[in-house]
Design goal:
By secondary structure, this protein is of the alpha/beta class. The chain has five helices and four strands.
Length: 145
């Protein structure tokens, strides 16, 4: 069974595009997409995100931010957000997501902070957390499905 995984952050230009790309590479048999709670619709991924993903051999230059919708929530089997506040916001807006809504860092008990408008070093720190979360979820998804 192919799971449909939706990754959500605030603007859909920093964290969720990187997590989407890494999850997509780690779980090629699953459909992975991303969106933002307050998306900067139509904007490309942040320059630091583009650069860091390119260094990992992943091209996210075609990414364009999009807003989270009820339809995207309904179509997803698993929804991963970056922090507790986003989890609460999403559950409040879209109550039907309960039961399939998790933080990327839930299994390890951490939030992924927002590097928006911060320097490359902070993006690298953020990406390290995303990579840690992706590894845990990759193993989880392979065990479940």
């Amino acid at each position: 069974m192919m799971a449909r995984i939706l990754v959500v952050c605030i603007g859909n230009i920093c964290r969720s595009p990187m997590a989407e790309a890494l999850l997509g590479a780690a779980l090629p048999d699953h459909q992975v997409s991303s969106a933002g709670l307050f998306a900067m619709e139509g904007y490309p991924a942040d320059a630091h995100a583009l650069e860091l993903m390119a260094e990992r051999g992943i091209d996210i230059s075609s990414h364009r931010a999009r807003a989270l919708t009820q339809e995207l929530c309904d179509q997803s089997d698993v929804i991963l957000v970056m922090d507790c506040q986003q989890k609460q916001e999403l559950a409040s807006r879209h109550p039907t997501t309960r039961g399939k809504l998790y933080r990327l860092g839930d299994p390890e008990g951490f939030d992924v902070f927002d590097p928006y408008r911060l320097d490359r070093i902070e993006f690298e720190r953020c990406l390290a957390l995303i990579e840690k979360g992706v590894e845990v979820w990759r193993n989880r998804m392979k065990a479940i499905l």
